[in-house]
Structure of DNA helicase RecQ:
Amino acid sequence: MSRALAILKEVFGYHAFRGTQAEIIDHVADGGDCLVLMPTGGGKSLCYQIPALLRQQAGLGVGVVVSPLIALMQDQVAALTEAGVRAAVLNSTLSSSEASAVERDLLAGRVDVLYVAPERLMTPRFLDLLDRTRVGLFAIDEAHCVSQWGHDFRPEYIQLSVLHERFPNVPRIALTATADALTRNEIIERLALDDARVFISSFDRPNIRYRIVEKDNARQQLLAFIKAEHMNGDGGHDSGIVYCLSRKKVEDTAQWLTSHGINALGYHAGMDAQVRQHHQARFREEEGIVMVATIAFGMGIDKPDVRFVAHLDLPKSMEGYYQETGRAGRDGLPANAWMAYGLGDVVQQKRMIDESEADEAHKRVSSSKLDALLGLCETAGCRRVRILAYFEESAGPCGNCDTCLEPPATWDGTREAQMALSCVYRTAQASRVHFGSTHLIDVLRGNASEKIRQWSHDKVSTFGIGKDLSVAEWHAIFRQLIAHGLLVIDHGGHGALLLGDPARAVLKGEQSVTLRRQVSKPGKSGERAGRGGPRTDHTATMDADTLSNWEALRAWRTSTAKSHGVPAYVIFHDATLAELARSAPASLDELAEVPGIGASKLERYGEEILEALREV
Ligand code: ADP
Ligand code: ZN
């Protein structure tokens, strides 16, 4: 057995490496540089933690990990310490005497893994300290922070190229979950990783179930979804994140959910910093909190047991959507990505693009990113295939998204498309301006509103030709026509619709249009799609004995976590706890076989766990 595998078992309690982990670990432990692109939850941490241990054991020195977020560092250090690794952190939260103690340990070779914030690392004092320390490797976590165009740019990251100049013989491993080629090349260039090996994993997150429903009453739909799929046996619910576009909506939604029995907190950049921090800490440390947030709640959420991410508003791009939904299910257990969307979202995003200060080229890119996301929302095919294709990865239908589980019926919508398109054409011709979908639908349905009379649109030839369809059905058609590029949202922010280039062929009858039938009944979609698929509730499949064990173990974990001052998942992940409940080990030997229980945790908690199980 290789040393790396032995450490995986002994320290972390896992039985096998995942994907490219083994290869990466060998490469870095041998002193090679590399860039690792792996999705969230893929297991990046072990890719530097195990080489750090291997190199420290070989007398080569400490593994120094650069990480941008304090909360994230503290969690990692707590988890490593629980696993018996000599881990430490140097950041602004330490008092100077605590910092000196860490520095002394470092110089004496008593630290295996040191986490440090980039601004700390770059101080002359710290670089000088490193000169006097044996350093076995540098790991640069969240390496996309060097990318100036990326979403998490950190100026300090740019200076990290100094590491290579100053410590040319120390191997460096840079890691990120941001996949696109632009970011990748920027990381390589800025960190001088030209000769590094690049390890790219599949970006698929098979445990996440994607679902996009038509927005009706989004809050009610969300509540129905949570109630149908995320309640636990004990009346509590799973941890989840709900993303909203505006600060006001965050506050309203959090309040509304709370009044409906959901343990919800809000988070946005306009909140009092202390309140915000308090909410984040509670989300991290407690179980079963739903965080309603703007995208300000982002990087550094490494809580492994977030069971769902819901979007009440459309994100800006596929990258945004994938990153946000990726915060669900880091522990590999089933999780949900759920979104409610409507045409209003698209118009709103489009307006934000138009009204932004960006130049024309940038606006065009933003628009096409939005279009890609719209395509995802309106596809009749597998969501995952679409998402992965966007990231240039090919895959077959996944069987774990709404369209795979309940393939939407399609219908020949050529005639209806022609009606809508010619309505756009006729109204614009009559009035010399363009109109939005609400007005166009009124015209089609022959609804003689004031605005219609004002523009004399009851005189155009398309007035009333579409009265057989409901407003909702027309909305669905308009959305799909936009997704297909037959209609284009005008610049100027009012949601006016213009004919797209391919519209001509449809109007001339040269091309047919296939549309998906809207199946989802508002509020019901959650329940329906949940049927027959994997449940995210651990307790759903447990028999009575297992359930009692689970409850006893959870109580034990809660009190242990409290007394150690760490989040529950630092003690054990849910997956480990569920396995303990199921297998109910009666001896330390049996206990050692459970994945997630390494030597240190066995020694520290073994007896207590056996005791807790005996008392059930
Ligand atoms: P990332 O940083 O890539 O988002 P993490 O390093 O936090 O992912 O790992 C995600 C989860 O997977 C963690 O709970 C970790 O303990 C677990 N994990 C990582 N590698 C393995 C493995 N080889 N076997 C079992 N679990 C693993
Ligand atoms: Zn699918």
